[in-house]
Structure formats: C-alpha cells, structure tokens
Amino acid sequence: MATFLKKPLKLALVQLASGAHRQDFPPGADKAANLSHARSKVLEAAQGGARLIVLPECFNSPYGTQFFPKYAETLHPSPPSKEQSPSFHALSAIAAEANAYLIGGSIPELEPESKKYYNTSLVFSPSGSLIGTHRKTHLFDIDIPGKIKFKESDVLSPGNELTVIDLPEYGKIGLAICYDIRFPESAMIAARKGAFLLVYPGAFNTTTGPLHWSLLGRARAVDNQTYVALCSPSRDLEATYHAYGHSLIADPSAGILTEADEKETIIYADLDNETIVNTRKSIPIYTQRRFDVYPDVSGQSSK
Ligand SMILES: NC(=O)CC(=O)C(=O)O
C-alpha cells in the first residue's frame, strides 16, 4: 500500500478569538494577550490528543492593511531575537510545551532590508524548532461592489514560493494562506509531491465565506484526494473585518469531517493513510491524469 501518512494523526484547528481590536489594551498588550490566549487554546488541543495543531491567519493581530505595519515582526536573519519577533519565540515555546507540530497561522512580517511586508506562516516541530515558513503567495485584492473591497497589495508583497513541509513522524503537508486556496495549481503541486494534507490558515469574510469557503475546501480535497484543513479566526463583529469562522476539515473524498460555527472553538479529526489510499483506489484519477496532453497547465507553452 502506498504511504502518504505514516501513522494515524489527530489534527486540531483552533478557531481563535483574538482581542486585537480592543481599544482598552495599551499598545502592544493586545498582541501579548493574544499570544497568551493562543497558548492556552493550543495546550487545550494537545490535551485533547492533537499532534498537529493549526492557528488562524493573522492570529495575533487585527486583519487589515492599516494594521499590518504596526504589528509586523522581523523574522530574518533566523532565528530572530525576542524583540524582533515575540510571536516566533512564543510559537516555538508553545509547540514544545504542547509536544505537537504547530502551524502558527500567520503574522504580518517586515523584511528589514527590502522594507517589504508579507503575510507569513511559521511552522514548528514538537521540540520547538522551526521546520517551515510560507509567505502568502496570492494577495487578497478584491472589489465586490456594495459588499467588500480589500487590497492587501496596498501594503503587502507576495511570497514567491510554494510550500511543502515534511513532518518526519507523519509525512508531508502543503501549506498556503487563505486567498491562495483559490489557485488550485499550488494545491495540486503539493499533492503531486506526496502531501497527505493541505492546510490553509484563512480569514474569509461574511460575504465570500458563505459563497466559497466550504466549496473551495471541498474542491481542493476532491481535486487532489487529500485531506484539507481551513482554520479561521472566530467572528468578531466589533472588529473592522468580520471573519467568517466555519473552520473545517475535509476528507480525501471531499466529505466534511467537522466544521465549526462562527464562535471560538477547537475542532478535531482523525486522519489515516487507508482513507487516502482507498479513495484513490475507488476513483483512480491519480493514475489517470494525462500530463502528456497538458504538460503545461499555465497554457503558456508554444504548443
Ligand atoms: N482573506 C483572504 O485572503 C481571502 C478571502 O477572504 C477570499 O478569498 O474570499
């Protein structure tokens, strides 16, 4: 039997409430409070048996272009000092304390030499070592008249790499952030590289969430016959951006294993290799692909 996932894995998504919008916190204290709150929820997930734990996009800051520069941390050269990146050090310590792999949602990052800002995810091993990073590759620039206009590219720069991370005890995961899920190519490449799970810390909103969140999660699962996890912040109607919530885990047939509502919660699912293998046996698109017919999915080849 082919092995994508070396042993069963309990996955937890922490749909975190961050208090970053609150005016009553002194400057900087909201981030410290959010890191401390994230710690308690990650430890709760670990107590619940999870060995891979995911936090949401911008888990310790408000989501909005006006906030990114204020909350940005410097990650390079790596490892950064505690002053440069309190979140790096907090996440590393939390992963070690939880004895679990930790996908630290994302944080705004400032690259000091270029002075560019990124939306960046940090991944730590159970010993607290950094084992991967992903900079959001596709920026959330949309304009739905009368509903929502958002332009991440006013402040952020896109990352230029796709990310597959090896969790030595379990296997490979594809990691991307929120709007990246709308681009099936990156998911497909991660799956072709053997990922058993595609993870998206994300913050869809109350307009695009009902339209596309679950659909996209299930689509990436059915396209690739992998598990898919989408981890959102909980909804906060006092914040300037209203996150959709509804964190979910889909199985390799695109069935929803578990889905949150909009409130703070932790959801869990048990992942196993047999489900991936059996899904691919039953509907064998995996071996039926015709890369001889479409070797260049960008459509840019001269053929
Ligand atoms: N916030 C995002 O990056 C993406 C999103 O909300 C959407 O694609 O819709």
UniProtKB/TrEMBL annotation:
The UniProt record lists the keyword Hydrolase: yes
Gene Ontology cellular component terms for the protein in this record: mitochondrion
CN hydrolase domain sequence ranges: 9-273
Tagged with keyword Hydrolase: yes
Alphabetically ordered keywords of this record: Hydrolase
InterPro entries: C-N_Hydrolase, C-N_Hydrolase_sf, Nit1/2_C-N_Hydrolase, UPF0012_CS
Single Gene Ontology BP annotation: glutamine metabolic process
One Gene Ontology molecular-function label: omega-amidase activity
Domain of life: Eukaryota
A Pfam match: CN_hydrolase
Family (UniProt): Belongs to the carbon-nitrogen hydrolase superfamily. NIT1/NIT2 family.
Protein name listed in UniProt: Hydrolase
Organism in which the protein naturally occurs: Penicillium diatomitis
